[in-house]
Amino acid sequence: MVMRRKSVQYGDLDLDRIIRTLTQVKPWQKSLDISESDIRMVCVLARQIFLHQPMLLELEPPLKIAGDIHGQFSDLLRLFNLSGFPPESNYLFLGDYVDRGPKSIETILLLLCYKIKYPNNFFLLRGNHEVANLNRIYGFYDECKRRYSVKLWKTFQDVFNCMPVAALIDNKIFCCHGGLSPNLRSLDQLKRVARPCDIQETGLLCDILWSDPDNSVVGWAPNERGVSYVFGADVLTQFLQKMDLDIVVRGHQVVEDGYEFFGRRGLVTIFSAPNYCGEFDNAGAVMNVDENLLCSFQILKPMEHPLQKTTAIGGLVNLVNIKLASENGTKTPKRYRRGML
């Protein structure tokens, strides 16, 4: 439940100094004036909070939903400039904080600090890159080793293994990183998952973090990523009806406009890393959910010169009433290749 109350106690750790240091980091800055011992303490405190909150978060609006960040720390700061720094706004992030981008440590560290400072207003789900066997390969391990130590990388894995994997907003909006699973028959299954936990190569948790919607599929089919499945609009419709839900909100895929609907607006993909990897001219997006579950989107456009000082560019667009919306007349943006893990 999103509510206001005092944050947890964090002893001698100067959390406000760490947050202040991080929010003043420049795009070209390579060093970070935060000790490894302080980062470890942040990890310990965040892990405790994750374990005290459920695997399936039950949240109340209003809040903002953000998708993949992937170490694009400058864009994360732009996102907060656009949508409000905590505690001005309540947030739910859908996972994939690390790998690929240049500042994964800054990204995950700031998010964990906000989780500690505002535990009941700031929420982080686990993505498929918050798994050791993936972030060992795609950049986070090398960044931790180069800038701090392998031991710190292992400490972050202890945090990732305790993160929740899904959220339910007002019993109507189901949020996760990837998508649905043929093994998901009841949301209570997620509540019963014990933590800390690794993500196996198959099964319920793997699918929640890895699966994708696909317009060309009826039912379930193997995923071109080589992990999990893709599912058709028919699977989505059955899931929404069975669970009495309005919409599924997920990340995991680059989409041109930062958000993209699927299955007659029964699902929306949110991606919050503009100009992903410097290869895609995509926008980023944040989804706003108000008290009446009316949903709208704020757009974060790519920076023309990422290494120069810039201000956030974006605006409120495409106000959508999820319960009443019709897909007639809406465009279908192109989707980028699925092969990006």
TrEMBL record:
Its main location: other. It is found in: Cell projection, Pseudopodium; Chromosome. GO terms for biological process: amoeboid sperm motility; egg-laying behavior; male meiosis chromosome segregation; regulation of pseudopodium assembly; spermatogenesis. GO terms for molecular function: metal ion binding; protein serine/threonine phosphatase activity. The keyword Hydrolase applies. GO terms for cellular component: chromatin; cytoplasm; nucleus; pseudopodium. Gene3D superfamilies: 3.60.21.10. Its EC number is 3.1.3.16. It catalyses: O-phospho-L-seryl-[protein] + H2O = L-seryl-[protein] + phosphate; O-phospho-L-threonyl-[protein] + H2O = L-threonyl-[protein] + phosphate. The keyword NAD does not apply. It is an enzyme of class 3 (hydrolase). Residues 125-130 form the Serine/threonine specific protein phosphatases domain. Keywords: Chromosome, Differentiation, Hydrolase, Manganese, Metal-binding, Protein phosphatase, Spermatogenesis. SUPFAM superfamilies: Metallo-dependent phosphatases (SSF56300). Signal peptide: none annotated. Probable phosphatase which plays a redundant role with gsp-4 in spermatogenesis by regulating sister chromatid segregation during meiosis. In addition, involved in sperm motility by controlling the dynamic disassembly of major sperm proteins (MSP) in the spermatozoan pseudopodium. Belongs to the PPP phosphatase family. This is Serine/threonine-protein phosphatase. It comes from Mesorhabditis spiculigera. The lineage of its organism: Eukaryota, Metazoa, Ecdysozoa, Nematoda, Chromadorea.
